[in-house]
Fold:
Amino acid sequence: MQENNNYSNSHDDEINLGELFIKLWDQKWMIVIPMVLCVLLAIGYSVTRPAVYQVKAVLTPPENDQLLDINLNGLTQFTPESVFRLYFKELKSPAALREYYQLTKWYEPESESESESESESNKQAESLTQSEIDSRFLSFLNGMDVSNSTPDFLKKTVDGKIVTGSEASLLQADIAWNTSNSAKTAEFINGYLSFVNKQLIAKIHKEQSASKAQQLAELTRIQNLALNVEKQQRELNILKMQETQKLEISKVEDEIERLVNAHYENLETQLVQLKESLAIAVKLNIVEPKSLEDFYADSKNLGQIEIYTTDKSDRSKDYLLGSKFLNAEIQEIEKRRKDTRFVEGLSVLNQKLAEVKKNRQLESLKNRIDDKPYVEAYLKTLDKVAQLSNYNLEFNEPEFYQVIQPALAPGESVGRNKNIYLALGLVIGAMIGLMLALISIAVSNYREKNKTNA
Structure:
């Protein structure tokens, strides 16, 4: 008896697909009605929902001609791809986008009707708080897409693999926005491209100016260092030359002093001898030489001044010259004691002393006012300084991009596909209807089972 009850319960739990389909068919309106309602809602949504368009511009690197002016100054050397990479980076910069966003007052609410005045729109914009402006900007930023769209056949490869990351080729870029106001967005994109170009020009100009100033400062530092080294070296050379000059002056002066002293000693010796001979001549009362023959015979040709000043070997018979002659000789020698012109070789030494004191090389170093012409390291920097000084940083505004597809309105529709909405409405309606039909069938079976058991 128990086995029969178990078999009966398991038989009741089995699902009869044929019976289920029949019951579903009986509930067909319960399935169809939700489907129709959902399809109608989908149609209404697709009709009333604002159309969304993708406004896109396609860019490529500039031509070489655009970079001639900016490369001629020598501070930078750009290639079309390198400058386009900088432009692409600036284009993706949230800071640049935010600046242009606020510059164009994109956050201002659009006029709902033509009758709404511009002043009222401006008042609404001024009433926005900074957090509201930031929120609108973030929402606007989420709709932007700046991407590298370089075709695969132009991309750089290594070992057959396409290079990615910062080293990847950048020969084409897309800038796109999904928007419901395609005309205004197209105007914004085209203006933003030009704005970023001007921003990059200003940035490059600033970097070049800083580079120029830095290089000039470095060259000035090198010049000052070279001039300081030259000045120190010159002062050291002057000190060395002055010491050498002092030694040479002292040496020549010593020679002069020795020569003069020797001359004075010689004169003193002559005076002593002459005075002794005079004393003898006075005692012998010899006033005049006795005769010329006797003079030559007795004095051995010592009667002339030249003989007395040069021959010092034998002056023993000078008294024969007579007191008159000897007095004149003594007076003449006394005069010579005060006059150094008669010192043999003194004029040569005096000339040598004058040349040592004059030392033209030393005077040239001491009187040098400007060391620049003598500093090789300084002279080498002059051409570079002149070149940098002549660099013209005021160049014509080049375009760092080419537009092969400008941003145009209305653009490509990306957010209003009716077929998708209809399909979604049909599927969702069918699921809701099927679920309601199954629930109705389950409730009906439960009631029938309770009546049978009763």
Remarks:
- The beta strands are 53-60, 144-148, 157-158, 161-162, 173-179, 402-405, 412-413.
